[in-house]
Each structure stands twice: as structure tokens, then as C-alpha cells.
Amino acid sequence: MTDYLSINRANWDDRATAHANSPDYRVARFAEDPAHLSDVVRFDRQRLGDVAGLRGVHLQCHIGTDTVSLSRLGADMTGLDFSGASLTEARALALAAGAKINFIQSDVYAARDVLDGEFDLVYTGIGALCWLPSVNRWAQTVASLLAPGGRLFIREGHPVLWALDYDRTDGLLSLTEPYFEQEQPQVYDEPFTYVATDHVFTHTVTHEWNHGIGEIITAVLEAGLTLTGFEEHQSVPWNALNGRMRDLGDGEWQLTDRPARLPHTYTLQARKPV
Fold first, then answer.
1. Integer Rg of the chain from CA
2. Is the pLDDT reported for residue 195 higher than 90?
3. Within 13 Å of residue 162, how many CA atoms lie on the same side as its CB?
4. Burial of 128 by CB count in 10 Å (0-12 exposed, 13-18 middle, 19+ buried)?
5. Is the pLDDT of residue 214 over 70?
6. Sign of CA dihedral 152, 90, 117, 74
7. Which CATH number goes with the domain that contains 105?
8. Which GO terms fall under molecular function for this chain's record (predicted)?
9. Fewest Cβ atoms closer than 10 Å to its Cβ: which of 33, 55, 169, 211?
């Protein structure tokens, strides 16, 4: 396998400042409004329930908007990401927002080696799993981080969404990318990102993997966790299919034409048995 970590880290280092400065992440709102939460966390707030007092870790936290939001809900948060540039932005955000969060640089698979103790909550947000070659290894890492009774909470892009042909203009939904996990990555060279920015990117190549819903759920179960919730959604928190989606408000977008055709995202919850 190629050195996907170095290739992807260079890409995310390149994105960090552009994302922090983009109006889509609304970073300044965290300093201006002490009650402000990221769109992703606000979407799942009822599903999250009361997280006050929980020791939590946000894997693949990027610039920390969801991490700060969970902290504002009362969780004692740690953020982990492999991009040093992203963590620089995350620390600046936490400082401006008045949030006490420990940010640690590490690859997800090495999280158990760099994090102390066990956690009541392991949180993963949108657009994380596609950067990992093995969902089984991810689930085993999550289980190793959880305290007995602790829970996993993840909202992610649906693997059907990741498998679509994004360039079609005829309104049809066409599955052209792998749905199931493959040994070799899907290699893309794209000089843009998913938010509004004028930044000119220099590291444009990424290596990514899709993971089927069955593979994800099986990995969680085989890691010894008990599935406690699974819900598929008909919206996604970015304009995933440009020109074919409508803005629902609150940061959510939906396929304009017959949206019930497409599972956009999902929320999965699981617990580690006591």
C-alpha cells in the first residue's frame, strides 16, 4: 500500500487554514456567541442526549468545531487529528471560544498509544471513515478507547453517497465508485475542497476508501460493542451534489429531485458492555 498517511496529511494541512477562514465553518461565531454549536452537533443534539461530565474524545477532529461544540454541552473533550495544521486552527478556535480542550496529533490507529485512560464517549463526525483503509481496525481502536459502559457516536456520509458519480448532469444517480471496502485506495486529484474558499491548493491528491454499511456495523459488533442506535437520514451537512441539492437550512442539504432515492447520511451509536 502507498504511504496514504503522508499524502492525505499534506492535503489536510493544505486545507486547514482555508477551512478555518471559510464562511461555511463559521469559526468566528464560536467567539461571538457562547451558545453557538456546529451544524453537525446541533443536528444530532437530541440523539446525543446529556453529555455533561463525560470524558470524551473526538477522533479526526480537524479544526475542532464539533469538538468545541461537545465541550459546550458539558463534555470534557480531547481532540485527535493527524494534521498538525488542523490542530493549530483547532487550538486557536478553542482559545477564542473559551473552551478547555486537549488536542493531540496522531493517526487514528495509534490513538490508544497516545491517549491516557478510557473514555465515556468516542465521537466521530462527517467525512472521517473514508480516510481509513480498514474499518475493522478503526472499530477495534474505538473499543480499546472506551470505558465499560462508554459509547461510540458517529454521524457520517452514507456509503451510497460516497459511491455516486458526482459529475453527472442528467439527474440520474449512478453508482460508479466502490461501495464495499477495497484493499487499494480510490485515488483522486482535485484542486478544490468542500467549502467556499479562494485558497489555491498545492497538495491535491488524496487516497480514500469507502466502507459499506454492513461492513461498518459488523466491525462495530466484532469489536465487542453493542449497537444501540442506527438511523439513516435524507440530508447531508454540505452541498454534496453541486447543482442537484436544495438548502434545507441549519447547514443541511438534500437531493432536490426525489430525495427518498438516496440515503444521504447516517447516525450510529454503540456501547461497550459493562
1. 18
2. no
3. 24
4. buried
5. yes
6. negative
7. 3.40.50.150
8. methyltransferase activity
9. 169
pTM value? Answer: 0.95
Q: Which of helix, strand or coil describes residue 82?
A: coil
pLDDT band at 237 (very low <50, low <70, confident <90, very high): very high
The x, y and z cell numbers of residue 154, run together, are: 458517529
Rounded to the nearest integer, the mean pLDDT of the chain is 95
Q: Is 7 helix (H, G, I), strand (E, B) or coil?
A: helix
Q: Which helix (H) or strand (E) holds 93?
A: helix 84-97
Count helices and strands in the chain by DSSP H and E runs: 10, 11
Domain total in the chain: 1
Q: How far apart are CA 214 and CA 180, in angstroms?
A: 9
The pLDDT value recorded for residue 2 is: 61
Report pLDDT for 124: 97
Contact 110, 84 (CB under 8 A): no
CA dihedral 44, 47, 48, 49 (to 10 degrees): 130
Q: What are the cell numbers at 183?
A: 484493499
Pairwise CA distance, residues 87 & 103, whole Å: 7
d(C-alpha 127, C-alpha 142), whole Å = 17
DSSP annotation string for 172-199: ---B-S-SS--SSPEEEE-S--SS---P
Residue in 237, 270, 214, 205 with CA at minimum distance from that of residue 3:
205
Q: What is the pLDDT of residue 166?
A: 87
Domain hosting 27: range is 4-271
Pairing status of strand 252-255 against strand 205-208: unpaired
In angstroms, rounded to a whole number, what is the distance separating the alpha carbons of residues 75 and 93? 17
The string of pLDDT tens digits covering residues 111-164 is 999 999 999 999 999 999 999 999 999 999 999 999 999 999 999 999 999 999
As a whole-number percent, the residues of the chain with pLDDT over 70 amount to 99
Cell 499534506 belongs to which residue?
10
